[in-house]
Amino acid sequence: MLLIKKLTVREEYFIPMYKYLIFDVDDTLLDFYPAFAIAQRNIAEKLRIEPSKEYFETDDKCGWKAWEEFRLDKTEEKDVQENYHVYYYQYLRKHFEYLLEAYGKVCDVQELVDCYLKSISSSKVMKEPDTLSIYMKLSQRYKLVLATNGIERVQKERLFDFLPYTYRLYVSEAMGFIKPTEDFYNNIMSDLKCKSDECLMIGDSITNDIAGAKAIGMDVCYYNANDKTKPENILVNYEVNSIHDLVPILL
């Protein structure tokens, strides 16, 4: 499914042009799940636990319990916005504390955190096979920007293949702001010295990418690879199910 915004009579014969394309990273350009699966296996090996279905289920439960405890999915809340990265490191530690407790294991929790982050950093699995090639094509016409919540050293390593074709990289830990705050997007526009109508935000998160960018006046493209039902109150300029769908819109 490819939805292009309804054009006015004045716009009828051309697609709006942008100077900057701003891409989300996880689950838009890169697939986070394989990275997480590698980390789970490496943690299991370190703890000498059989990486069975039961282990993965237990680890998932421990992770989600800690994630919900620190409310990291509540990025619209002021407290989470101001303390996201502090809470994120605390979440990682608590996740592995719960896992050690579940298996009666003893290990330095920081070693597990370091193992996890190193494992995530090493994964560069694309969301789609042609993601990088299309990104490269787009870079010939637009200035491409990467905007992601996350740990700077982790995201930089994972994005190594994209960086030669990227004009700017913005990682929340280094910026001091997270998506979907206006500060995050306004900081980007200030650094780029551009206006919101010169940018198109492309991402998979309705809250962080779509609503966040729309709030400061950017056009948005909802990358809906899993064909999720979009909230009725969210209006998007474009919706695509594949990275390939960007080609007829932008090239």
Description:
- The chain has helices at 32-47, 53-69, 78-103, 109-122, 131-139, 152-158, 172-175, 182-192, 206-214, 246-250, and strands spanning 2-4, 20-23, 143-148, 168-171, 199-203, 219-223, 238-240.
- The protein has a seven-stranded mixed beta sheet, sandwiched between helices.
- It contains ten helices and seven strands.
- The protein is α/β, with parallel strands linked by helices and 251 residues long.
- Strand 3 (143-148), helix 6 and strand 4 form a beta-alpha-beta unit.
Please outline the helices and strands.
Layout (H helix, E strand, L loop, with lengths): L1 E3 L15 E4 L8 H16 L5 H17 L8 H26 L5 H14 L8 H9 L3 E6 L3 H7 L9 E4 H4 L6 H11 L6 E5 L2 H9 L4 E5 L14 E3 L5 H5 L1
Parallel strand pairs: 2-3, 2-5, 3-4, 5-6, 6-7
Antiparallel strand pairs: 1-7
Helix pairs in contact: 1-4, 2-3, 3-4, 4-6
Q: Could you spell the SSE succession in H and E letters?
A: EEHHHHHEHEHHEHEEH
Shape estimate = globular
Low-pLDDT residue spans: 1-14
Give the number of helices: 10
Main beta-sheet annotation: 7 strands, mixed
CA gyration radius, whole angstroms:
19 Å
Helix fraction by DSSP (H/I, runs of at least 4):
40-55%
Mean pLDDT: 93
What is the tally of beta strands? 7
SSE class: alpha/beta
Q: Proportion of β residues? A: 5-15%
End-to-end distance: 18 Å
